Amino acid sequence: MRRIRFQPWDTAEPFVIDEVPVPVPGPGQLLVHTEVVGVGIGLVRMLHGRTAPEAGPGGEMVGRVAALGVGVAGFEVGDRVGGVVFEDVYARSVLAAPALVTRVPPEVTAPDALALVRGGLVALGALRAGRFERGESVLVTAAASGSGHLAVQLARALGAGRVVAAVGSPEKAGFVRGCGADEVVTYGQESWGDPVGVVLDGVGGALVQRGVDALAPHGRLVAFSAGGGAVDAGSLLGDLKSVTGFSVGRISRDRPEQIARLRAELWDLHAAGRLHPAHTALPLDRIAEAVELVEARGNLGRVLLRTG
Ligand SMILES: NC(=O)c1ccc[n+]([C@@H]2O[C@H](COP(=O)([O-])OP(=O)(O)OC[C@H]3O[C@@H](n4cnc5c(N)ncnc54)[C@H](OP(=O)(O)O)[C@@H]3O)[C@@H](O)[C@H]2O)c1
After folding, report:
1. How far, in Å, CA of 70 to CA of 49, rounded?
2. Residue 182 Cα, ligand 1 centroid: separation in angstroms?
3. Domain of residue 81, CATH code
């Protein structure tokens, strides 16, 4: 089968496609023949931090169960599944932990499912972590990203009074308005408009404090980016603002039933025509282009690779 080998970032060919044996699922593992795998800022960050070849990175995938390891219950060969795999996801066949994948409804396309199993989960989980209530205003940073554009769509679908999309460049305005944003702001803009009830931050760094400053009294900022950032505690107290973290990985470990509820809600909203994931699909051997697109901050929605 084909699998991408990652070489040090500064080598001429950082991505090499190897032919390797199909892995054999160990106890408690699923073998999945992938259809699509995701490319995002997580992979870009990992590649930049990497100095030597190592196990291939993980990420989200959608495919069909091809074999079950000893002790796996709840799945059958042929089931269409999607979820996150921690390593060597850029391949035709991957080993997955049953707890981190879910069955994909048959009517959902592989690219839509791929966009929802991680980006959708992050977006809906973050909205819930921010205790969002119908009628409140919501500001989303990295609003054109794989998770951000779904956060904009979800805020709209769940009855936000006003949705503000914050993006890196004004060229993304049309796209995020199409997702349901009422207003579009860029990070460099001096004012982000009227204060909002909830900020979902998928960028980190200086934008965390910027997001806190954009909150109305009693507002909540949900930090779900791996981009770090710091907050001046003094900026929280007078207006009773709060900042909370959100991680799909942590919730999957601590509260799997919550993940199952979020996933069910996402499939329902998708079936009702309330969610329209956007994606750019490329074949596996064009991974360099896919990475470049995200690195240049040019992606609109989820970038994915077709492995078949
Ligand atoms: N907490 C969790 O469980 C969890 C899970 C998955 C992902 N995440 C986080 O969610 C955020 C969005 O991830 P994603 O996979 O949805 O994004 P993505 O589809 O890969 O989109 C990346 C976008 O992020 C923005 N961005 C901000 N800083 C960037 C940088 N230094 N380099 C490249 N792009 C940058 C860019 O848009 P603009 O230029 O418009 O800002 C870019 O287009 C990330 O911060 C990621 O760490 C969290």
Report:
1. 36
2. 21
3. 3.90.180.10
Residue 218 sits in a domain of what CATH number? 3.40.50.720
* Atom number, ligand 1, closest to the C-alpha of residue 302: 19
Residue 179 domain-assigned?
Answer: yes
151 lines ligand 1 (CB under 6 A): no
- In degrees and rounded to multiples of 5, residue 173 shows phi and psi of -60, -45
**What values do phi and psi take at 202, rounded to 5?**
-110, 20
pLDDT of residue 52: 57
| C-alpha of residue 298 to centroid of ligand 1, in Å | 11
**Residues 142 and 75 both lie in one domain:** no
The verdict on 126 and 221 lying in the same domain is yes
pLDDT tens string 265-283: 999 999 999 999 999 999 9
What value does the mean pLDDT take over residues 156-171?
98
141 CA → ligand 1 middle, Å: 9
Q: For residue range 57-73, what is the model confidence (pLDDT) as tens digits? A: 899 999 999 999 999 99
CA-to-CA distance for 269 and 273, rounded, in angstroms? 6
CB–CB of 36/78 below 8 Å? no
User: Which positions ≥6 away from 134 have C-beta within 8 Å?
Assistant: 158, 159, 160
* Shared-domain flag, residues 206 and 298: no
In percent, the amount of the chain with pLDDT more than 70 equals 98
**Closest of 54, 48, 50 to residue 227, by C-alpha:** 48
> Mean pLDDT over residues 203-214, rounded?
98
Is 133 found in the same domain as 78? no
pLDDT confidence of residue 192: 97
Residue 260 falls inside a structural domain: no
Whether residue 211 lies inside any domain: the answer is yes
Stated pTM of the model: 0.97
Residues 171, 88 share a domain:
no
For residue 227, which atom of ligand 1 is closest to its CA? 45
* pLDDT score at 54: 63
Model pLDDT, residue 51: 64
- Quote the domain boundaries for residue 190: 119-248
